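Lab notebook page, bench 4
Experiment: in silico fold of construct C2
Operator: M.H.
Input chain length: 209 residues
Purpose: comparison with the prior construct
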Amino acid sequence: MLAISDVHSSSSKLKLLLERESFDAVFLAGDISNGDMEDVRKILGYIKDFNENVFFVPGNMDPAPLLEIRELEGCLNLHRNKAYLRGYSIGGVGGGLISPFMTRIEFTEEELSLMLEELGKVDLLLSHTPPFDSGLDRIRSGLSVGSKSLKYYIEREAPLLCVCGHIHESRGIERIKNTLAINPGPLSRGNYAVVDLEGEEVNSRLLNL
């Protein structure tokens, strides 16, 4: 599975990646665009041309109407939704936490907690925001800015995998109890991850274009 995030309307890196490798599925953890719905359509459509199993959540920079769209360009929006892929249940939450920057899609911890509770247990979780104090959520100052609600959900429900993004400088792979959590880094800078799933065994590696 290809895990990517933070495309930010930059399709050149995406085209290079998809023309180089093939995958069984694509997980896109938000910030597909910088707020333009046509950019979202273009990028999702391009991925769909290469792969039939494309799943995404909107990021904090994406247009807010994307929250209400279940399917776009043949790609499934997992925000507050569940789907199934080869026997795995998958689901997600999009957007960022409330911030001083007042970006397009932001939620309080309480709102995220409710969304995750309604989502219930899934095997594979897709989130734009990373879990708190996970090593995947540290800004340049070293401060952890991830979601405590998401961290609690992961500890409680123990999904096999969590793919997140949002914090560009916290690219990495970490373990949260039994969950493998991945921030592949921004694809706009040529960063991505490949995930291998076999039963309950999950392995991943970070790669660059």
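Observations: Residues 2-208 form a domain with the Purple Acid Phosphatase; chain A, domain 2 fold (CATH 3.60.21.10). The chain has a mean pLDDT of 97.
Next step: discuss at group meeting.
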